[in-house]
């Protein structure tokens, strides 16, 4: 049973807030829960450039959802830390 922590992070990957700890029956439910949090925050304009990030107990990132794109996203597992960093920078640069 995965145990995950959920955080609100900015584009520089600094933790801005925590949504706490949650236990899951399957890994696939982790990204879906992160997406649910992001969809709940997307109506707040100041959060649209932030990410909801799910991490396991060892600090490994399991899911990352850009809040401004939460309505358009299907939860997925991240590929690598380098891919995530490049994607985060690209998405932040595209924001007005």
Description:
The protein is α+β, with helices and mostly antiparallel strands and 96 residues long. It has one domain (3-94). It is 29% helix and 29% strand. It has two helices and four strands, in the order ββαββα. The protein has helices at 28-41, 81-94; strands at residues 3-9, 15-23, 51-56, 61-66. A four-stranded antiparallel sheet has the order 2-1-3-4, with helices on one face. The longest helix has 14 residues, at 28-41. The chain starts with a strand and ends with a helix. The model has no long low-confidence stretch (mean pLDDT 78).
Task: Kindly report the spatial arrangement of strands forming the biggest sheet.
Answer: 2-1-3-4
Helix content: 25-40%
Largest sheet: 4 strands, antiparallel
Strand count? 4
In N-to-C order, the SSE pattern is: EEHEEH
Structural category is alpha+beta
What is this entry, summarized?
The chain has helices at 28-41, 81-94, and strands spanning 3-9, 15-23, 51-56, 61-66.
């Amino acid at each position: 049973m995965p145990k995950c922590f959920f955080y609100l992070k900015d584009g520089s990957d600094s933790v801005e807030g925590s949504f706490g700890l949650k236990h899951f029956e399957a890994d696939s439910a982790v990204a879906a829960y992160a997406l649910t949090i992001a969809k709940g925050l997307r109506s707040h304009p100041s959060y649209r450039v932030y990410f909801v990030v799910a991490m396991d107990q060892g600090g490994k990132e399991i899911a990352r959802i850009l809040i401004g794109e939460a309505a358009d996203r299907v939860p997925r597992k991240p590929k690598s830390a380098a891919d995530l960093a490049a994607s985060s920078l690209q998405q932040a640069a595209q924001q007005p």
